[in-house]
Structures are given as C-alpha cells and as structure tokens.
C-alpha cells in the first residue's frame, strides 16, 4: 500500500478529513523551507504538497507567483527540491509528499531521470498543472517503473465525458479545483462543488481533495464536508512571504497549520 | 507529392509538429481549447466563413497587399532582385490584422462575447482592438509595463479604439509576462471569453490556425510573383519573433524544395551574449504557453528574459512549426543584432522611402548581407510585415536624437 493510500485509510478509520498543506520548495530559502517542511506533520498536516518553483506559473495567482520568484532568487532548483524531500524522509516515513508544478523544469531535467530520483528521494505523487490528459503519456511512461502517483486535476469545466478522460491514468487521489480561476483568488460556490463531487464519486473510488481558494480554518471545515481532504496553499505561502525567513516564519506557519488541523479534527 | 513527404502536413490530430506543439494547458482550459479546435475545423471547411474573411480582407484590410519590386534597394545591393511584400500597408500597419480578422470571426461563430489578447509591440493589441471595435465586442489587452513605456503611441491607439489595457508588472513586464496574464484571465473566464493569440504559438489549434490565417500572405505572393516573373521566387526572407508573418509567407512554399527559405531571429546584443531573442539559434526545446518549442531557458528549465530592440520580437519562444522546420533543416534560421537592424531601418527609409518596422528591419538586414553575393536573376521576396511609425521614438532614442 502506498503512503497516500495508507494515509487515506487512516483518515477513514479516524473518521476525519485530511489536511493538505502547500509550500514552495526553497521559499524563502533552502534552510527555512527545510525547517518548515519538517514542522508540518507535527502541526497537523496529513499530506504535503511541495511546489517546484517555475519562472512562468500561468495557473497561479500573485501569492504563489511571488513565492516562486523568492525561491528562484534563493536556491530554488529541481536538485534542491529533491534534496528537501530526501532530508524530510530521514525523519518521516509516513507523510505523503506530492510535488506540484509545471512541466518545463521536469522536461528539462529529463523525465526518466526525474522519475527515478523522485522515487529515490521519497516522493509519492506529482501534480503537473500544464500537462493535461492529452499530453500525459510522456509522464506516465517514466512513472510506470516507480510507485509515484500521477494526481490529476478535475475542474468545474470537466463536464460530461471529460471526467472519464481525466480519470484515465489518474491515481493516488483526485484534486478538485473548486473555482474556474487561478490559485488564491476567488472563493468557491458550495452548491456547485457538492454537485461536482457527487458526479466524481459516481465514476471513481479515488479519494477527492479540494483546493484553490481555501484560506481560513472556517473555509477548510466547510469545504471538508464535500471531500476527503482539503488543500490550503496561498494563505500559508502568504505567511511565509510576509515574514521572509527565520524562526518567526516557522512559528507562524506552525500556528496557522495547527488552527487549520483543529478545524478538521473529528 | 504524398502527404507523408510533405512539409505541409502538420500538425497531427493532437496538434504536434514532430515533438513540438501540443496542448500544455491547465485542465480548466482543456474543454475550451477542444471547443476552439472543433469550431475552427468546421469553419475551415465552410465556404461562408472564408467568403466573409476574404471580403473583409479586401475591403477593410486592403488585401491583397502589393508585391513591390524594390528597384532602388536592388541596385544598391547589386545582386539578387528584391521584392517586398507590402504587408505594412495593411489597415493598422502590420500583418497582425490578418489573423485577428480570422479569429474574431471564429469567436463570433462560437458565441463568445468578450475578447482578450496579449501584446508586445502593441501591433497585435491594436489589430485586436480594431476588429473588436468593428464587431462591437469588449476587448481587454494585456501588455507588459516595460512595453507600455516604450510603445506609447500604440497604447493610446488601443484606448482610442475602445480597448481596456491591463498593465502587467510580473517578470520583466514584456510579452512573455503579458501572455501568462492573459492565460490567467482566460482560465478565470472560460464561459464568455475568446483569447485571440497574436502569433503562431500557444496550444493547438492556435499555431495551425494562426498560420492558416497568415498564409494569405504567401498565397498572394505565389500569384503575384508568377504574374510578374513568370515563375516562383528563388528565396524567401522574413523576420521571426513568434513567427506568424514568417510562417504565413513560408507555408505555401514549403514543398517547393528548390526555394531557399530564411527566417531571421532577433540577435539583440548578439547570440553569444545573454541579451537576445533568438530561441532557435540560442535556445533549446521546452514547454511554455501551451506548446513545446525552442525556448530561451537556463540549466534548471527556468525561462529567461529575451532582449531585442524590437518589442515585437522580444519573446523567449517561437511557434512550434518553426522549431520543427528548424530540426528538419527545411528553413534556415539566422540572427541579426539590434545595431544591424537599426542600420537596415535607416537604409530602407532613405533608399526606398519606406520606414519599416524594427521587426522586418531584421529581415532586411539579412537581405542586405546575402543579396549582393547572389546573381541578378535570383528573385528574392522579403515580407515587409510592418511599418515603422510605432518605432520612431525607439530609433530616435538609439540615434541620440531628442524629439
């Protein structure tokens, strides 16, 4: 059983919804990011999404864009992203780590090499925002030799047979994008989400996480009614961006993640 | 010639030219991209669509644009016989409007009610704002802050035409950043909005669609040169940023294998420096803005800022079909520096009485290099894809003239 499957199984047994926290690798710098990363599980994160910084994040709002710039101005690179995962795995064998980002840094690194090194580092899943089902073969082929999940995005525009297309090749869980828009902007309409998730459940047994636009513990609690896990990204990244390094960043992020986890506690 | 042996058979059904092209977009956009493709395929086979296109191309844009024998330049160079395809005489002053006309007809057909576009030099923004005024559709143009500063006349023209300009401050505030922002806007407004992409790049079907609309240039040249010279030309030359004017000229001739075809990239301060916009000669394959193509990028796959004196060529990528033609070696790609383009700009103004845009000044600079070595019966066609009114401030600044 993969770490992702195991974690969803545990959540089910505990009767609670999971918390997925997103931070950008090397934001605001490698050392601070490493400390934040290690602190996330004890603060209550059930899954970690680690952003791979990219110069042109076309599906992200200003908060994540700025995080990518901070990371790239520090020591952000594919090598250091994988290094962060390796270092995290030295002390944590159970929290799933999902790398999230855009295709060019992976393509440039070499998809085969990326898949191999990600596996060796302890990565459990990847979400590549700009690789839709039509182009996924070049990711699935190199991933097939690993147990890394390709986590697919489902959006409010995924109507009719589009959902079936998306489900081909999807594993781990599904990431439902709650708004038609970029990260960290609008808030979601709960009625539409309920309908969408009901449709998804009819077609797959994969767990469903919901993200985009979830900022506060209250948002997280409300959204969790519709799914198996909620993703919080921009609001955590915003905390990191405001303080920019040092113990206070780690402390404030921990406090924020604890509050989110408490809101989801059974 | 069988389709398999043709250079004109691409893209395949998934939008790939060899390994290039494709549809690398966020899932939110996929259904819409597929809808655009379906609508375009239907329009392409609909004579009514093309009759509206050609009727407006004639009466509104002023097509066909003349093919002009540049006798004075030919004499000055003392070699090949040079013809200029006068797309700078189009309404709005560049080739960009050919594509905008096609795309807005498609948007209308799809029932979209709002248009967005990105622009670098502002020519595509002006052309988009123009067709939006004509078809009474609200228009939002994304433009980098840096480009807004250096292309003030075009910014004002867009405003006069009723467009809203959104200043983009992320990145270096140039065309790449404007395109990112336009894509973000599109993701957030998929229901009512059509994105008129300005060059033969982006996700499928845009590269093929823009090429088809711009092919009006090459198709006219075929007829015009046959009328004038009784035969096809020996060579074709065009400048390349994203590459829409070039692919429009080249595509109808790709299978005429005796014709030498040359694309001229913007070499900025030189392709051996880090200040240029020559994606093919100075970049490597990668994925950006919906397609795989040659890109300027660093060792980690981060996209680098391009540099060119010409805002219209200041882009770190290139249309995917050019990347394929480069690998196939069907088209030669060369580069010309800022200074060389500036010199060609002045020579053209004084010799032919035509003030070219800085973009085709790059093409002309290469013509000036190679034409003198060619025999006098060599017929060369260069695409004069835009006029230089928009560039006079940049040029004055470079020449140290205060206006």
Largest sheet of chain A: 9 strands, parallel
The general outline of chain B is globular
Stretches with pLDDT under 50, minimum 5 residues of chain A:
none
CATH architecture of chain A: Alpha-Beta Barrel
Compute the CA-based radius of gyration of chain B.
19 Å
Order of strands side by side in the largest beta sheet of chain B? 3-4-14-9-10-13
The largest beta-sheet of chain A arranges its strands as 5-4-3-2-1-9-8-7-6
> What is the percentage of strand-forming residues of chain B?
15-25%
Instruction: Find the structural class of chain A using helix and strand composition.
Output: alpha/beta
Oligomer: heterodimer
Query: Helical segment tally of chain A?
Result: 12
Helicity of chain B, as a percent range: 40-55%
CATH names the topology of the largest domain in chain B as: Rossmann fold
Biggest protein-protein contact in the assembly: A-B, 46 and 38 residues
**What is the CATH first-level class name of the largest domain in chain B?**
Alpha Beta
CATH class of chain A: Alpha Beta
Q: In the residues of chain B, how many domains can be counted?
A: 2
Description:
- The complex is a heterodimer of chains A (266) and B (403).
- Chain A is α/β, with parallel strands linked by helices and 266 residues long.
- Chain A has one domain: TIM Barrel (Alpha-Beta Barrel).
- Chain A has helices at residues 3-14, 30-43, 62-73, 78-89, 103-109, 111-121, 137-143, 162-167, 190-203, 217-224, 234-243, 247-264, and strands at 18-24, 47-51, 97-101, 125-128, 149-150, 152-154, 174-177, 208-211, 229-232.
- With 403 residues, chain B is of the alpha/beta class.
- The longest helix of chain B is centred in the N-terminal third of the chain and has 15 residues, at 30-44.
- Chain B is globular, with a radius of gyration of 19 Å.
- The model of chain B has no long low-confidence stretch (mean pLDDT 96).
- The interface between A and B is large, with 46 and 38 residues.
């Amino acid at each position: 059983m993969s770490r992702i499957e195991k974690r969803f199984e545990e959540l089910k047994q505990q009767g609670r919804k999971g918390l997925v926290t997103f931070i950008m690798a090397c934001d605001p710098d490698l050392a601070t990011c490493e400390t934040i990363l290690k602190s996330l599980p004890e603060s209550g994160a059930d899954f970690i999404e680690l952003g791979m910084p990219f110069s042109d994040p076309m599906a992200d709002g200003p908060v994540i864009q700025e995080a990518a710039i901070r990371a790239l101005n520090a020591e952000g690179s594919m090598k250091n992203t994988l290094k962060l995962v390796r270092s995290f795995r030295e002390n944590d064998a159970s929290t799933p780590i999902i790398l999230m980002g855009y295709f060019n840094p992976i393509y440039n690194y070499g998809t085969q090499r990326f898949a191999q090194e990600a596996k060796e580092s302890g990565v459990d899943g990847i979400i590549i925002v700009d690789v839709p089902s039509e182009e996924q073969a070049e990711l699935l082929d190199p991933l097939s030799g690993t147990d890394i999940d390709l986590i697919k995005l489902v959006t409010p525009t995924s109507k009719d047979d589009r959902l079936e297309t998306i489900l081909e090749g999807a594993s781990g869980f599904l990431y439902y994008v709650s708004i038609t828009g970029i990260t960290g902007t609008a808030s979601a309409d709960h009625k539409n989400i309920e309908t969408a998730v009901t449709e998804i459940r009819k077609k797959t047994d994969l767990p469903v996480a919901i993200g985009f636009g979830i900022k506060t513990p209250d948002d997280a609690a409300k959204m969790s009614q519709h799914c198996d896990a909620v993703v919080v990204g921009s609001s955590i990244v915003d905390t990191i961006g405001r303080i920019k390094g040092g113990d206070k960043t780690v402390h404030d992020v921990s406090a924020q993640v604890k509050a989110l986890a408490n809101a989801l506690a059974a | 010639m069988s389709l398999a042996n043709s250079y004109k058979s691409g893209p395949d059904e998934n939008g790939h030219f060899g390994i290039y092209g494709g549809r690398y977009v966020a899932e939110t956009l996929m259904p819409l991209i597929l809808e655009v493709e379906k609508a375009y395929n239907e329009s392409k086979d609909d004579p009514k669509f093309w009759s509206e296109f050609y009727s407006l191309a004639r009466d509104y844009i002023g097509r066909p644009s003349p093919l002009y024998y540049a006798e004075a330049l030919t004499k000055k160079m003392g070699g090949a016989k040079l013809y200029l395809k006068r797309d700078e005489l189009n309404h709005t002053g560049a080739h960009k409007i050919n594509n905008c006309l096609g795309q807005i007809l498609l948007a209308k057909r799809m029932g979209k009610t709002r248009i967005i576009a990105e622009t670098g030099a502002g020519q595509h923004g002006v052309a988009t704002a123009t067709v939006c005024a004509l078809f009474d559709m609200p228009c939002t143009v994304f433009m980098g802050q840096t480009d807004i500063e250096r292309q003030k006349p075009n910014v004002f023209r867009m405003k006069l035409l009723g467009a809203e300009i959104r200043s983009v401050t992320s990145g270096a505030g140039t065309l790449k950043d404007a395109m990112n922002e336009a894509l973000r806007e599109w993701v957030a407004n998929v229901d009512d909005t059509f994105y008129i992409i300005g060059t033969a790049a982006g996700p499928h079907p845009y590269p093929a669609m823009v090429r088809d609309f711009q092919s009006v240039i090459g198709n006219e040249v075929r007829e015009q040169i046959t009328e004038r010279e009784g035969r096809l030309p020996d060579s074709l030359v065009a400048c390349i940023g994203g590459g829409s004017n070039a692919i429009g000229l080249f595509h109808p001739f790709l299978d005429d294998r005796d014709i030498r075809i040359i694309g001229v990239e913007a070499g900025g301060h030189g392709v051996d420096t880090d200040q240029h916009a020559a994606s093919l000669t100075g970049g490597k394959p990668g994925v950006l803005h919906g397609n795989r193509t040659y890109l300027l990028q660093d060792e980690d796959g981060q996209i680098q800022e391009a540099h060119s004196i010409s805002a219209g060529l200041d882009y770190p990528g290139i249309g995917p079909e050019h990347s394929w033609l480069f690998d196939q070696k069907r088209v030669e790609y060369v580069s010309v520096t800022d200074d060389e383009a500036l010199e060609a700009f002045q020579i053209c103004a004084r010799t032919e009485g035509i003030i070219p845009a800085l973009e085709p000044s790059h093409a002309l600079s290469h013509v000036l290099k190679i034409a003198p070595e060619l025999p006098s019966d060599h017929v060369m066609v260069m695409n004069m894809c835009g006029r230089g009114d928009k560039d006079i401030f940049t040029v004055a600044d470079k020449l140290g003239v205060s206006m």
